[in-house]
Design goal:
The complex is a heterodimer of chains A (162) and B (206). Chain A is an alpha/beta fold. Chain A has helices spanning 2-20, 29-36, 54-69, 88-98, 117-120, 152-158, and strands spanning 26-27, 43-49, 75-81, 104-108, 127-128, 130-135, 140-144. Classes of the chains: A alpha/beta (162), B alpha/beta (206).
């Protein structure tokens, strides 16, 4: 009886989260580092963006397209949001829901760039958008500190023959 | 004849090296001498750093009308001018976004903004984007504090205004303020650069 109830509850939870869209976890830099430096074959496409950054918002569909194109390949798209952590529920979550974003979104609550950027991308000024394509195991690292051009992500990913 | 060919080759090599050096450079570093510029202010007059022979330096702010981070910092830029203009470090604001890509940053829009907010400092239009490129400005806002050195100005600080763009109240490192205060006291700048979050400058399509 209990197990039936359990399954029912889990189903209810899953269904409700599907309706709500994904929830956006608020993370610190150390957690981000763990997320993108796993020693596996996955190619991480990490895009730093903000809801207030027009060029970022404009290029988001390209990352969503990548997620679909390479759904069967070891490619993981991670959208690292840089909005104010305080605006998670008022801005970021509604934005992700309204745009029906399927790629994984995390809110990096680290306003003081000088404490962490050197550990990730010393060449980055802090201007958004910024994209990193990385795989620590295969020593892959592409740094793009401007909006991506149409088709640019595909040609970059394709050269790694995943 | 051989000598001429050799000289030509050397000249070519030097040219290539120089060209590479130029393309590899990404704007000013702390300590560099600033090349003066002449840009149009919102009042229609041209402004250069050399215009004010009595200043000790300038707080140069690459900023714009449209970027939310620049807007969040606008009050702080105005406050910096209020705090330091009388002490010899006035603010000069420069807007370098391509107005075609960012219509809200057109010269007319700049004039409206400066008027609405009563800017007490020049708000210059870097239409060709040459000044932003020479400085190596990448985002808005992006600050360059320059200090007088005879007839020239040298870069003393590059980067963010402070360490929290969301909220002035929680910023506990006021980079520009500290740098200018140290310069006024004749000290070395403790933190000569700090990264600035912001919108990338909207460059003209190459």
């Amino acid at each position: 009886m209990k197990s039936v109830l359990g399954i029912f509850l889990i189903t209810l939870l899953l269904a409700s989260s599907a309706i709500r869209g994904q929830s956006v976890p608020v993370i610190k830099f150390e957690q981000l580092k763990q997320l993108i430096s796993r020693p596996n074959d996955t190619l991480y496409v990490v895009n730093f963006w903000a809801t207030w950054c027009a060029p970022c918002v404009k290029e988001l569909p390209q990352f969503e397209a990548i997620r679909q194109t390479y759904a069967k390949k070891p490619v993981h798209v991670l959208l690292v949001n840089m909005d104010n952590g305080k605006t998670l529920n008022t801005k970021v979550t509604p934005f992700v829901k309204n745009r029906k974003i399927k790629s994984r979104v995390v809110l990096l609550n680290e306003p003081d760039l000088n404490t962490w950027i050197d550990k990730l991308a010393p060449e980055w000024s802090g201007a958004l958008p910024m994209t990193l394509i990385i795989n620590s195991k295969r020593n892959i690292r592409q740094f793009i500190d401007r909006p991506v051009k149409e088709g640019e992500l595909e040609s970059m990913i394709n050269q790694y023959k995943l | 004849m051989k000598k001429a060919a050799l000289l030509a080759t050397i000249a070519l090599v030097i040219t290539v090296v120089l060209m590479n050096a130029r393309s590899a450079s990404t704007g000013y570093k702390v300590g560099d001498v600033v090349q003066d510029f002449k840009l149009k202010n919102v009042d229609g007059k041209m402004v250069s750093l050399a215009d004010k022979p009595d200043v000790k330096g300038y707080i140069i702010a690459f900023t714009c009308n449209t970027c939310p981070v620049a807007k969040a910092y606008e009050g702080r830029i105005m406050a910096l001018n209020e705090q330091f203009a009388a002490k010899g470090y006035p603010v000069v604001a420069i807007q370098a976004n391509d107005a075609e890509r960012s219509p809200g940053d057109s010269y007319t829009a700049m004039q409206q903004r400066a008027k609405a907010k009563n800017y007490a400092f020049p708000y210059l239009y870097d239409e060709s984007q040459a000044v932003a490129r020479t400085f190596g400005a990448t985002n808005t806002p992006h600050m360059f504090v320059v200090k007088r050195d005879g007839a020239q100005f040298k870069v003393a600080y590059i980067g963010a205004i402070d360490n929290n763009h969301y909220d002035v109240a929680t910023a506990d490192k006021k980079y520009v303020e500290s740098a200018v205060n140290e310069l006024l006291e004749g000290k070395a700048v403790t933190t000569p650069s700090a990264r600035a979050v912001g919108c990338g400058i909207k460059w003209k399509d190459a």
